[in-house]
Amino acid sequence: MRLFILILLIGTLFIAIMADSAHPGSYLYQVKIYGNEKVIEAFSIGKQARAENSLRMLSHRIGDIRYLVADPSLVPVYAPLIKKSIGESQAQVESYVNSQEALDPDIASYNDIVRSYNELMSRNQAVLSSFYRETIDYP
Known about the structure:
Mean pLDDT: 81
Shape: flat
Low-confidence stretches: none
Number of strands: 0
Structural class: mainly alpha
Largest sheet: none
Radius of gyration: 17 Å
Strand content: under 5%
Order of helices and strands: HHHHHH
Distance between the termini: 46 Å
C-alpha cells in the first residue's frame, strides 16, 4: 500500500513538472491552468505574493497567445480560457496596486510590481489588442 501511494505521489509530481511548460494544444495544458497555477495561487500568502504570481501568470498567458496565433485551429478551444485567465490576473494585480496606494507599507516592492505590470502590458499591447480583436466571437 505504501509503495502504491509513493508511486502515485511521484507520478503526480512528474505530471505537474511536465505540465509547467505546457502550451495550448498540449494535453497537459489543462493541468497547468487548473492544477499547477491554482495550487500556486492557493499557497500565495499576502497580497504582494498574489500580485507577483498574477504577473507571472499574465506573462505566461501572453506567451500562450503567441501559440494560438501560430495555430489558429486552437483559438476556439483556448481563447475563452486564456481571456478568463488574463482578466483574473489583471484584476489581481490591479487590486494589489489600488490597495497599496492607500496603505503602502513597502514602497520598493510596490513600485517593482507596478513597473513590471506596466512594462509587460505596454510591451505586449499589440499582441493583446490583436488577440482580442481576432477572438471577439469567443466569450
